[in-house]
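Archive entry. Fields below.
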Amino acid sequence: MSLAESTTSPTRIVSAEGSAVAATRVMQVPAISWVHPPEGFLGLSLLNGVLRILTLGVYHFWGKTEVRQRIWSAVRIDGEPLDYRGTGGELFRGFLIVFFLILLPMLAIGFAGALLLSPTSPARGLFETAFYTVPLALTGIGIHRARRYRLSRTRWRGIRGGQSGRSWRFAWLYLWTMVLIPITLGWIVPWRTVRLQKALFDDTRFGDKAFTFSGSAGPLYRRYWLVWLSAIVLLIGTLVAVFAIIGLDTRTGVPRPAGLTGKSTAMSVGVVFFALFLFAIIRAWYTTRVLNYFASQTQFQGTAFTLAARVGSFVWLTASNYLIRVLSLGFLSPIAEARSTRYIVDRLAIDGPVAWSEIGQNPDALLKSGEGLAEAFNVDAF
Amino acid sequence: MSTHSDVTSFAGSLGDGRSAEAKPVEASFADTGLELRTPEGSAIALWPYALLRSAVPLHAKAADVLLSLEPEGSQTLFVADPAFAGQLLARAPALSALRHRWRGLRPGLAVTAAVLALVLGIRFLEVDPAQAVARNLPQKSREALGRNVVTALAKDHKACETPASRAALDRLTQRLTTASPNPMQVRVALLDWRLVNALAVPGGQIVLTRGLVQAAGSPDEVAAVLAHELGHALELHPETGIVRAMGLSAAAQLMFAGSAGSVSNVGLVLTQLRYSRIAEREADAHALRMLKAAGISSKGFGDFFERLEGKRPASDTGKSIPGLDLISTHPATAERIAMVRAQAAYPATPALSAEDWKALREACGPVPAPRPADADAAADREIAEATKALEKNSSDAAALQRRARAYAKKRQHDQAVADFSKAIQLKPNDATLRFLRGQAHHNLRRHEDALRDYDEALKLEPAHLGARNGRANTNRAMKRYEAALTDYDELIRYNPKFVAGYFNRALVQIDLNKPDDAMRDLNEAIVLDKEYAGAYAQRGLLHEKLGARELAIADFRAALAAPSKFDSTTWAHNTARTRLAALGVEAR
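PREDICTED_STRUCTURE:
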């Protein structure tokens, strides 16, 4: 078999002998690519929507699984697809467990507390604080477990991915750093993002080999300060501009109702949208930096990754995906999911060669059920 | 694709599941499975078709295929050849997208069928799971539930209670509940709330609003509404409603995978509405039974529904309380009125004595005077009736007088003068008719004409209090203070208990800037009638002018507390409120 015959991957070089005991092996840098499925995602999205309605929502989990199968298999490493092995039944089971063990008791406790505790009693305040903290704590667990489920159901050449580490440990980090966000007026955000990323990626596996993440928060702060500052400047600037358009009553300092004409309202809305647009661009300038930096700090088998996300394309992706989701009432969100994945895959490269032969099967036991918590609290691990 | 002598074979890459390394293989279709060989032709394995799994549900036109071998699934075969999928599907049809989706659809269809069966079962067997749960709630938690609802309501609306109103309400409740076959512990509270409403809350608590008690035309109407709410309490409808709301929202969460949205909310509301209509009918049946057993006429029931249909306050819908839609009574329907009206008559006594009824109506303070619109409507009716009488007999002086007074009430004084004049032609010696026309002239500011009529009336009947008072008022309006004072003095001499005389004379004293004399007259008026709002308000103004702040506040408060008795009451209440606000104190 010659090189020219290897239709599966143009960049791969296999040993001429093709036997298990190859003497010399030429290692090539693996290629990551997106091969768009010929069926696309529109038909599948609509079919899933219809079947979901017909089954009172139950098909949701099976539909979601087929979408993932299609997205995963469009992602090619050295020309061979990722293989999503999760099932609708697993997701459904996970949801039922969370529903009956967590959601339903919470619903009942919430009702009982709201009805049985007097609205003015201190016990009610305590109860409400606890009631809103529990979902926050569970969100961390949900993110971790969902990621563990997805990685364990992802294979390439039959080799499983994986996520080790304890969910509650991640949930605790997630919770206490979140509490610090308002206390630090948001300044902890980049540091927190790095901590969470490290907690997740240091425990990420492909086969029996681990990923490592060596990023620090410093490079992120070099862009974050502008996000933070622009948020405040744009907020004040927008208020000033809107008040200038509408006009203030000099005596009371509140907007004059008489200033609200059709023209001034349109101008005010325009100013607000312009400010939001500016902020979205600055925000994307930061987010693309985070993504690219994280890729460069993630290593597998001694080689790092390169991601080339750009501000313009990222803003376009975010805005268009938002519109797709909203305008289709969520029915076309598989298209948005596929576009997001493709955005990363198209711009991601592995820096150096990987010795595939050195990677053995992942020995971790499999989770029995799917990502119920993440489903229940609307979180999605990236 | 390379071709061996007779079998088509496809080039692929094989992962053995032990490392991420791949080996090139040739795959060909045998009868029982997929045959894998090395490129050199030596056999590696046979993968039975039944154990194959495709990474994606397979279409015949797929560009490439990723297979794995079940049950372990670690060994994979990737074939990037567009011809492979079609041939594979012909031998392993279970891999097709259609079959795959059908397998995924079966659990959903089973759940749908189960839910449908459950819903139909509940409908046909008429079992109510929510009610069963509600019946088993301990009384203590029911009461706690109810207390919280009442606490939430009482934040915005204070409870109204006087010892007399409490006793009246207790007597009425007692009368209705002791007649019930299974007596229950209930507490009835009256809230200072303008909205016409009544609701039963969990734990046997019933809330009536001031709006309801004051809109009711008779104690029988309040008794009927209370009996209806007692019916709800007896059937545990409030508790059932809360349990049902919980159950339905849990079901919606389940159905929409934890993200129940607005679509499911519409369904919830519709479902609850159906149940609440059944509940209203049950409560009505209980109410009619209770009223009959207590010997209270059920006519009040129908009256109240009709009143609600006639004048439902559209603007004041009140605050909605989650879970309580179901508990509040719903708009009366023709069907409900018809059911009440169909009751056979039975011996009945009023639901409350006159004193109890007054105590209940005034528990939140004096009842406001009927709105002008209502008074106008009443006047219109009188005019229509009198006109009909006059069509039969155009010289019916009494009808003319009635119509003229109705016109006067509507402030159409010209028509009033015309009718009074006709009546005077028919009865030229009637002093009252002259007096009434004088009033009409006075209101039209034709003071000279008014004076002529009053003079004539007093000539016919020198002791006519109204005419003398009227002449004095007109003289005061014309600033002829001496003439006015002479008449007021005369008036009070005739009848020392004529309170309005003192009040009116005080007004002249104030005009003449004689505060001491005015104060004496106002004191006298208040001694004669402790509920003279106008006198209190006027004295309050006087006190305020003289710098006696505390006395002024006390008078304004007394004015507000006084009921509507005289023409000046509205003025008095408004003045008292404004002045109290200006003085920076609360009404009470």
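CURATOR_NOTE: Residues 1-24, 378-382 of chain A have pLDDT under 50 and may be disordered.
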